[in-house]
Amino acid sequence: MGQTIDEPKVDNLVKPPEDPASYERANATFMILARNQDSSDVVHTIKQIEKHFNSKFHYPYVFLNDAEFSKHFKERVQKEISSDAYFETIDPKEWNQPDDIDKERQNKGMQELANENVAYARQLSYHNMCRYYSRGFYNHPRMKQFKYYWRFEPKTEYYCDIDYDVFKFMRDNHKIYGFTLALYDIHQSIKSLWPRTMEFIEQHPEYVNRNASFSWLVNDLQNPQKAQYANGYSTCHFWSNFEIADMDFYRSNAYSEWIEYMDQTGGFYYERWGDAPIHSVAVSLFADKSNIHWFRDIGYNHIPYTNCPNSNKCTKCSPGKFSDANLRSENCLTNWWNLEMDEAARNMY
Ligand code: GDP
Ligand code: MN
């Protein structure tokens, strides 16, 4: 992390256009799920995205909400955006928990997690949100018109200038998933995620990629108690509050069939599966690892973790500082680096 870096070392970076009006963008959009009361925090982050990236490229934004966006939200947000903004309401059938969830079992599961101080354990809307980010958003009628998305969250920070088109970087270098931070998960929240996944894979071995990132999913050296509790899954995952990814991956047979299988088990409600381990396990199993990209150059913070490159494109963060000292053991990036990145990936910057 101390190494000075700049942009990805590929020969096909697309630099900001001189004439934005005639620029042919990739098929891509920003995307966020938000509530009306999030408007200040959403604006906080959009200002940074616009300053560092989008004032140069003008990609559109899609705002998704389970309730209707207020006039106030739309007006506040639109003011900050240099491109098109779409404000969409989610179909309740896609958002709410399915009818066949056993309420008694759900209540018991939520209470158990609450007793162990798992955040949002008893908050049904949070479970719905995680499920929607896992199996809903990429099939929303508005999202269906796009291939790539950049997910952002309210109150996150972006520290570095990005002077190339990241969506074209994804497209032209065959990347399907890009991340900035990799963490261990709250093991109580995903107790059955791995065993259920292994059941699916026994039925569908053909979906596992020959160059899958299997090692970091099962590594138990750095944090053995996590892997034990999660029944064989290291709990390492890409932190999904930042993602730049290709939705055709989620729309594939492998992901679609796996996520329906997982959803049927009720794990989004009987436990509290996050969309981060869901996306990460899928992309690590069903994609070629060379198609997964660490955006080392995108300085990013979602409390309490940071990706801060040592680059003169960045300000307001401390290079290499991931978190306060007491949280350093939550970092799983070294496993990704050691176990899954080859020399070409390590020398990308
Ligand atoms: P955390 O990062 O895990 O603490 O969760 P957040 O509270 O940041 O929620 C994750 C994302 O989902 C954010 O973009 C929120 O605005 C959004 N979100 C969470 N719950 C809801 C909800 O009930 N409705 C809507 N529309 N968005 C939600
Ligand atoms: Mn958040």
TrEMBL record:
InterPro entries: Glyco_trans_15, Nucleotide-diphossugar_trans
Membrane topology: Single-pass type II membrane protein
GO CC annotation, single: membrane
Signal peptide positions on this chain: none
Ranges where the record places region Disordered: 1-21
Residues forming the catalytic site: E243 (nucleophile)
Ranges annotated as biased composition (Basic and acidic residues): 1-18
PANTHER family in the cross-refs: ALPHA-1,2 MANNOSYLTRANSFERASE KTR1, MANNOSYLTRANSFERASE KTR4-RELATED
Record-stated family: Belongs to the glycosyltransferase 15 family.
Record-given protein name: Uncharacterized protein
Taxonomic source organism: Eeniella nana (Yeast)
